[in-house]
Amino acid sequence: MSLPQEPLIKKSIWQELKDAIKGTEADYTKVSLNRAIFLLAVPMILELVMESTFAVVDIFFVGKLGSSAVATVGLTETYLFLLYSVAMGLSMAVTAIIARRIGEKNKTDAAISAVQAIFLALFISIPFSLAGIFYAKDLLMLMGADPWSVDVGYKYTQWMLGGNFVILLLFIINAIYRGAGDAAIAMRVLWIANGINIILCPLLINGWGFIPAMGIEGAALATNIGRGTGVFLQLYLLLKGGKHIRVTLAQLQLNVKLMLNMIKTSLGGIAQMLIAMTSWIFLMRILSNIGSEAVAGATISIRIMMFTIMPAWGLSNAAATLVGQNLGANQPERAESTVWKIGFYNMFFLIGVSFIFYFFNIELVSIFTQDPLVLKVGAEWLKILSYSFFVYAWWMVTVQAFNGAGDTKTPTYINLVFFWLIQIPLAYYLAIHLDWAESGVFWAVFFSETSVGLFTLWIFKKGKWKTMKV
To answer: Does position 460 have pLDDT exceeding 90, yes or no?
Structure first.
């Protein structure tokens, strides 16, 4: 039986681009797949490009304070990665649940679920805030930070962990918008939030006029102000109503049953991300034994990588929304077709990124540092990363397909094996036992992430994710 389609009205690519940025009321379970992908992927890509632009700008200005300052950012981010893992794991569940309710045409339950997600994010933020405010120095020492980081850089850690609730809320509320199909709203919010970050970051780090130079503390303060503004705007727009979801004042109450269901659904996603992120903590700990230059070089290269692959993550996020909504509309074959289409687009894009990393790695890292040791480390990792991107492209999309379907357990088990049981021991063996130093860590990442990409694609082809209920 053929699926109902939208009226065949030809639109120019510019009109489609305008619709994607402005937002549209299109039903993503009925419009052509290419149009659905385009309308969702464009704002998601632009949203993530802006997020990664700030990360690059941030490290550019912090880099001028020295390798210890960059290392402080990198070590703080190892703890933030724990927070991100919770936020991203919960976001997976939120996107899947909201997308499924929207696919079922049940906007009331979608809005009620959104409220529970916001409450849950606030509860989760409390222990991270307390740890950051009272134990910033201890946390840095635990990661092997140098004296400058502990005595001066701790204020950055204090601000970033202490104000973590704005990070969590920004993640969760944008996940609500993406699941509903209001990706354009998520994009605009992040533009504003990170635009403020980009303006304030150099001002607060270096000072200007009556604004004192705050050094590395200024970078953290700028982030909190920008993201806090974004959260305020998100909440306003959620109450005002977007194209696909709106929360009313009457719905602003705790629903314990729904919240428990959301926690249950998100546990797999949280565990999935915790496994991936904590493996990064172990890698950074290994690098900190090698030296602050190794940590700084890895921090810069990972920022460059995240900036350049954001379009690929935007495409992958579109896959999660489309899979969830099409499964909600009882169209599993259309959901699968979406993943294959996006996977090929992703692969072609990341092959292009691979060429840039292979031939211009030194030039890219030299934008952020002139320290020869830091430059060498960062350039080496970019070159090694370039070898695996064509496989990594498929991993990104298939993992998001599992998550969009609500099957967060399968990627969790896969991550446990490939990141904890393979990547960490291999990195330690190569870097410390064989004395490959940072090169051992980088090659361990290459081997484990190439392997996990191929294995995840094989599991996806089996198709059990189509039967998930959320």
So the answer is: yes
Q: What is the separation of C-alpha 332 from the centre of its chain, rounded to a whole number of angstroms?
A: 26
Torsion sign (Cα): 295, 296, 299, 302: negative
Which of the 8 DSSP states describes residue 465? Answer: G
Q: Residue 295 in contact with residue 44, Cβ under 8 Å?
A: no
CB atoms within 10 A of CB 455: 15
3-state secondary structure of 309: coil
Q: Count H helices, E strands: the chain?
A: 18, 0
Give the up-direction half-sphere exposure of residue 143: CA atoms within 13 A in the CB hemisphere. Answer: 29
Backbone angles phi, psi at 345, to 5 degrees: -60, -45
CA–CA gap between residue 116 and residue 146 (Å, rounded): 41
For residues 460 and 402, is the Cβ–Cβ distance under 8 A? yes
Q: Is the separation of the CB atoms in 87 and 123 below 8 Å?
A: no
Residue whose entry in the numeric block shows the structure tokens 């074959």? 333
List 208's β-bridge partners, or say none. Answer: 211
Hey, what are 430's tokens? Answer: 């190569």
> What SS3 class is residue 198?
helix
Q: Are the CB atoms for 212 and 130 separated by under 8 Å?
A: no
SS3 408: coil
As a whole number of Å, the CA-based R_g of the chain is: 22
* C-alpha span between 178 and 358 (Å, rounded): 33
Spatial distance between the Cα atoms of 129 and 160, rounded to a whole number of angstroms: 9
Alpha-carbon distance of 185 to 216, in angstroms, equals 31
As a three-state string, the secondary structure of 207-271 is CECCECCCCHHHHHHHHHHHHHHHHHHHHHHHHHCCCCCCCCHHHCCCCHHHHHHHHHHHHHHHH
Structure tokens given for 13: 């690519």
Q: Can you say whether the dihedral through the CA atoms of 374, 375, 376, 377 is positive or negative?
A: positive
Position 123, amino acid: F
Question: Is pLDDT of 311 > 80?
Answer: yes
- H or E stretch including 65? none
Model confidence over 43-90: pLDDT tens digits?
A: 888 877 776 776 677 778 888 888 788 888 888 887 887 787 788 888
Give residue-wise pLDDT tens across range 234-255: 999 888 876 778 888 888 888 8
Please, are residues 157 and 106 in contact by the beta-carbon 8 Å criterion? no
For residues 324 and 319, give the distance between their C-alpha atoms in angstroms, rounded to a whole number. 8
CA distance 314 to 304: 16
Buried b (16+ CB within 10 A) or exposed e, 307-338: bbbbbbbbbbbbbbbbbbbbbbbebbebbbeb
Strand partners, 211: 208
